[in-house]
Design goal:
Strand content: 15-25%
Number of strands: 13
Number of helices: 12
Radius of gyration: 23 Å
Structural class: alpha/beta
Largest sheet: 8 strands, mixed
Mean pLDDT: 89
Amino acid sequence: MSGASGYDADAIKCVVWDLDGTLWDEIAVEAPTDELPVPRPRMLAAIDALAGHGVLSSLASRSAPAVLDRLNAVPELRDRFLAPQVSWQDKSESLRRIAKDLGIAVEALVLVDDSPYERAEVEALLPGVRTLAPEDVPALLAAFEGREVTPESRERVRRYRTEETRRAESERFQGTREEFLRWCGMRLTVGVAEPDEVPRALELAARTHRLNSSGLSPRRLSGLASEEGHELYTARMADRFGEYGIIGAALVDRTGPDLWSVPLLALSCRVAGRGAAAAFLFWLMERAREAGAREFRVVLRPTDANLEMRMLLRQAGMRRVDEDPHPGQTPADAVAVLGRSLHGDLPQSPAWLHVTTRTHPEPAPAPRKDTPA
């Protein structure tokens, strides 16, 4: 898809930039010295503005790999980009590799490239990717104007940089995947959302796809969370490399007798494959049983993207409990309700992940009347 008009800013997670003719004017391999061409200031400003909104940047250039070596020698430039690809391979293949390295869907990428041929190649082989010419960048930036920026958004680029370190350590680690995760000292902390965590929960509802149960809109989530009998929970994760921040959100409906129902369970794709989604779900089940519930349900809207979530719910022993809850609904709106009894043994969190419940501090006692304030 070409052009920046009508773009859903919630769907974009990474902008991939071409080099020659896009990030800078010249052709790097034709430079008479080893110095890189001078980047266009407006492009660097755009990259920094997107980073402020939590949008990552990467590189995909059909050029000699030595250009990337030269770029790596300029930290103030290299540090702006994650998972860069500089080689003679097709742009579509570079984008596939970037998406894989970042752990995001290829449809969450946007390509900025001055070459109509390169844009057409990507559009033909990756039809879900939006492509833009450099002159379209101001319109792209306009799509983010006025949007609330959460602390997690501002920290996203740094946290993905930390993720590169994790991946490098994983490749060097001498042992199994489970042993590496144990060595990481992974910790998940779950509790009722604080007021300042709500914007991040809404962001997760809008921006997650792989680990999103229902695709509930932020507006609908916000409305339900404020209704009586509903609670919003968040999950934070950390390990020896640093903080992941808030990586999960779940809305719980407790209005039914002996029942906890979850209209939305959403987790960041950054924690996929590390057991966080399972640990969060199992914690909710335990919490429900402790509160006296006998049954646990999750609302599921199956999509092409959330197969991982659907598999998790099945592995947790959840099965469809609604016969035909919404007759006449369109396939895009189709939802299912999965449930299970809370009697007997419940699934346990992965052994390498330490899960704790966040406790709220007790309010300070009121001062006695004979005590100076």
